[in-house]
Structure formats: structure tokens, C-alpha cells
Amino acid sequence: MSRSAHPAGPRHADVLPEGHYTAPATDLNELDAKVWSRTVTRDEAGALTVGGIEVARLAEEFGTPAYFLDESDFRARCRAWADAFGPDADVFYAGKAFLSRAVVRWLAEEGLNLDVCSGGELTTALDAGMPADRIAFHGNNKTVAEIERAVGAGVGRIVLDSFQEIVRVSHIAQRLGTRQRVQIRVTVGVEAHTHEFIATAHEDQKFGIALADGQAAEAVRRALELDGLELIGIHSHIGSQIFDMAGFEVSARRVVQLLAAIRDEHGVELPEIDLGGGLGIAYTSEDDPSEPHQIAKALRDIVTRECESAGLTTPRISVEPGRAIVGPTAFTLYEVGTIKRLEGLRTYVSVDGGMSDNIRTALYDAEYSVALVSRSSDAEPMLVRVVGKHCESGDIVVKDAFLPADLAPGDLIAVPATGAYCRSMASNYNHALRPPVVAVRDGQARVIVRRETEEDLLRLDVG
Fold first, then answer.
1. Mean pLDDT confidence for 373-381
2. Residue 194: is its pLDDT beyond 70?
3. Which residues are catalytic?
4. CA–CA separation, 310 vs 289, rounded Å?
5. What is the pLDDT of residue 41?
6. In terms of Cα–Cα distance, which of 106, 150, 144 is closest to 126?
7. Which tens digits make up the pLDDT trace of 96-130?
8. pLDDT band for position 63 (50/70/90)?
């Protein structure tokens, strides 16, 4: 599951014991503010609007499927994170969640930093004008070319992920006549309550250098000895889509213990720690994420308490929200194609997208909400599975949800909270064309990532 402590999803009443599941008590026309962006509402006719624009107009102009990103909401979330942590901490937006040149400019304007984990993300960041010293470069297997680009550009920090990389970055920095600021990513042995594919701090996985057998301490020794490196801190990331702060408390405690050991052995107090990201968002009404100010207070209290206990000066804290910023700001708009009612089983609602624009349901067993958005309806609720048009039985967008029983081909439905990872992980499976990302704000809509065309597909196919 992509969330912790989540009740079992609905199933068709015909295949469950009587009384096990009932239709929703809420009006299907109501919009849960937890899963929709801040400017989303319904107009007098019952159609969904975002940024003051009705979805039928958006569909007519930009087509479906398409991602519609609420720019005002995105910017407000950036400000909320920056304000929550204040000037004595650093907020790095995790670019892997979704990155474009427009997003980079918004981040720079709202005062956030940016972390990247590939040469392509770094190129996008630099091309859009993000100051290099506000960029952090991640990755478990950075190429020599990527490191040379990052060091040459003057990125603010490189997060070292292996013993080989410690030497590699140092040699490149010396060759380029500079001293590169670095952090060491450690795996702290925390089992985050999330899907196994997005849990990243237990020992048996590819990221970081383990604390458990003294490897992290040895990595620190080597980094401190190399002239090409300036070791500024320790980095830890325990996973993604996490609601329980207990894992962060254990992680922070172990990182501070390492800082104390470094002080005792080397006489050095490292000035920074990065606690990563991974804070969850609401994909359904059952999810209950914390607000940025709550997260900031909890993390600051944890680090301060542990440092006081260890007799350390409290280091500067960094965090890396990605999903928590962009995830709730966008929805995916689809047109309903076919509807198949299988008596005694379920109703399948097929849309004009699918796993090519949202792989998370198939990959992580992720759960989403869905709503009829081109109109309102007083029809009875119908339990459905929203599926895509690809040649896979696992091509599922929303596993189980209620939609009005009068749903018909041509209706527009929308899946909220798709701003994170959906476009980033989109594919051309079945030669599908990846959808556009359209930013909407104050009654204006503009494409920030255009829809792919068949010409784009053929241009890469050299025959």
C-alpha cells in the first residue's frame, strides 16, 4: 500500500458478505478539499472549474487526457513550506516529482531551492535560471559526465552515495580547480511504513551508505581526508508517502548520534543535516496529511532535543518536499469512452489515457479518487473501476470508486492529486502520446509541457 493504516477499498456488494460495504453517504457532486487544489470548485451548472476556467473549455482547447496544474496553489504551497521552516533552514523541492522550466522559475521566485538526480534535471534547472548554488545533486550512480557538469556549474551540494563516488567527486573537483561542498547519504535502518518500492532507509537497498556496520563513519573519514571535498553534513531519506513522524524521529536520532561520533573522533561539528522528504499527501478522503508548519515544528523539535542530549550545536536543517508541494496541485482530465457492466462483478469505465499517464496504480498499488466533472448528477452511485486503453489487464487508473449511475461516453472525469510522478513517469507504451501539462491561473491557461505528437515519435525512430 502507498499509505499506512488504510482501510480496505470498496468491492462490489454482490461478491462480499451482506452489509460489508455500503454506498457513500456523501454527495458525489461534493469536492473534498483535501484531494483537490485550492482554486477547484463547481460552477452553477455543476461543472468543475480550476483557476476560474471550466473543464469543458479546457478539454476543448487542450484535449484529453491532460494534466491541469493550479499555479496559484503550487506557489502557495511553496510559500507555506518556506514560511514553516524559516530563514534558518533550507527547503529543496524534489525535482523528480515533476520538473519543467516553468516550475523551476516558480521555485526560484518563491524562494525555494531545488534538488535534482540526473543530468537532464540539472540541465532543466540551469536552463531555467535556478542559481547553481541553490541546487543539490542526488543519485546512487552519477556518471562522470554528470558530476563534471554539476561541479563545473557550481552546484551548492552533491550528495555522495557510495565510496567510489567520494573519490570520483573529489578527483573531478580537484581537476576543475575547486572544492565541492558535499553531504554523505546514510541509510539509518528505519523501516518506513510505505510501499516497499519507495522505502529507502532500510539496509537492503541501493541508496546510501549504511550506519549499521560502521560504513558511514568510514565514509566520513575518507571525505574529510580529500582536498577536493568540503563535507558540510549528513543526508538521510527514509521513503515516500509517509504520514507517521516516528520514522523521522528514529532517523534524526541516529543521524545526530553519527554527528556526535564525528565530533568525538575528528573534532569537527558538521553544520548541516538533511532529513529528506517523503511526506504524504491526500489521494483519498481517508488520508490525513500534516501541514508544513506541523512538520517543521516536529522535525525541529526532534533535532534540537537530540542535539541537546548529545551536547551538539543544532545544525541547519534541510528538507526535500516534492510530492507534498506539487502532488495536490494538479488533476488529470479524461474523457469516458466505453462502459462495461459485468453483472455480479463490477462496472468498468474506460478512459482515453491509462497507465501511460499514471503508472502508480499498477506499480505501487496506489489509490486515487475520481469525480464526474463535466456536469453534476443526482443519479444513484455506481461502484466502478476506472481503466485505461492499453493492452494490459493491469492498466487501472482508479481501482474502486463511486461514480453516478448515469455516467455516459463523452462525459469528462478527473482524477485529483496527480501532480507528482504521473507526468514524470509517463511513457509511450502502445505508442501513446504523453499528455500536456497546462498551468491554470486567474482565468488564464497556458501549456508548460506540450502534448507529444506522432511526429515526435517518428522523429526518434531512425528506421
1. 96
2. no
3. 391
4. 31
5. 97
6. 150
7. 999 999 999 999 999 999 999 999 999 999 999 99
8. very high
DSSP 13: G
**Residue 272 parent element (H or E):** strand 272-274
Cα first-last separation, the chain: 42
Q: How far apart are CA 357 and CA 67, in angstroms?
A: 9
Q: CA distances (Å), 82 to each of 77, 89, 122, in order?
A: 9, 9, 22
Q: How far is CA 143 from CA 57, 102, 157, 320, in A?
A: 45, 27, 16, 23
User: What is the C-alpha to C-alpha distance for residues 145 and 68, in angstroms, rounded to an integer?
Assistant: 35
Across residues 37-57, what is the average pLDDT? Answer: 97
DSSP 3-state of 93: strand
CB atoms closer than 10 angstroms to residue 172 = 20
Q: What confidence category does residue 207 fall into, taking pLDDT thresholds of 50, 70 and 90?
A: confident
State whether residue 306 is helix, strand or coil.
helix
pTM exceeds cut of 0.85: yes
Q: CB 224: neighbour CB atoms within 10 A?
A: 15
Neighbouring CB atoms inside 10 A of 120's CB total: 12
| Amino acid code (one letter) for 146 | E
Alpha helices in 311-359 (DSSP H): 323-326
Residue pLDDT, tens place only, 381-405: 999 999 999 999 999 999 999 999 9
Rounded CA separation 256/178 (Å): 29
pLDDT exceeds 50 at position 142: yes
Which range, of 63-77, 233-247, 279-293, 347-361, averages the lowest pLDDT?
233-247
The reported pLDDT for the residue numbered 20 is 41
Q: DSSP assignment of 202-268, as one string?
A: SSSSSSSEESTTSHHHHHHHHHHH-TTEEEEEEE---BSSB--THHHHHHHHHHHHHHHHHHHHHS-
Q: Residue 239 — left, alpha, or beta (φ > 0 → left; ψ -120 to 50 → alpha)?
A: left
Write down how long the chain is: 463
Residues whose CB is less than 8 angstroms from the CB of residue 373 and which lie 6 or more positions away in sequence, other chains included: 47, 48, 55, 333, 412, 413, 414
Residue 267 — φ and ψ, nearest 5°? 70, 25
